[in-house]
Amino acid sequence: MLVLGGLGAAAVATSRATRIDASTLCATTGPSAVTVVLIDATDSISSVQRTAIINRLNKIDRQLKANERLAVFEISPGANPLTPAFSMCRPAAAAETSALTGNKKLASQKYDGTFKPAVAATLSSLLNKAPAAGSPIMEAIQAASVSTFQASDLPDEAPRRLVVVSDMLEHGPAGSQYGSLPDFDDYKASPQFARATSDLTDVDVIVLYLRRDDGASVQGINHIDFWARWFAAQGASDFKAIPVEG
């Protein structure tokens, strides 16, 4: 009886420790990690590029563990850069849920019936947007950093990852790379850099790099190096650019 009582007390303690917020699906103690995805659909995206992007983002989605937050933002002059199009913690799947201390059916409803369809709908919506006149990439990264990486419910030690789906051709309040690429050292000393700076300390950055036929004079190794230095100057711990097919 003492053993059973101890197990019962442990189960109650575990239940309390893992209480879930119904709207965010995050533990009330906060998410254990966060992945921010910024999607730049200000220029048209071909069907091949769209499929390649979704495949890569789905792979990133599958790497998420239970209680890790996924926040998806739109890069667009008309979007509110502080408000994500989607933000939710990845719930535990049925296979990860104990029949003794959890509810497998409820877990399946949350993961398969709520989380996965909501992610798919958000990606489909943002990747099928009409082109826009500007690409405020740096402004969007700054806003996402402030609203998500610095969120009050995110523990300081929680891993942070940023995924940017874009041609990385900045065209907004932080300047324009249409037609020419500025020297990074000169740009770093400019007021535009100061206005768009972000605290990306210990953030792992992945850029899904979209090729543009009309961006050939700027895009390439030097362009990627500019962005690698831009992220490093703000504390990012890692930077990787992955060319997207199409």
TrEMBL record:
<protein>
    <recommendedName>
        <fullName>VWFA domain-containing protein</fullName>
    </recommendedName>
</protein>
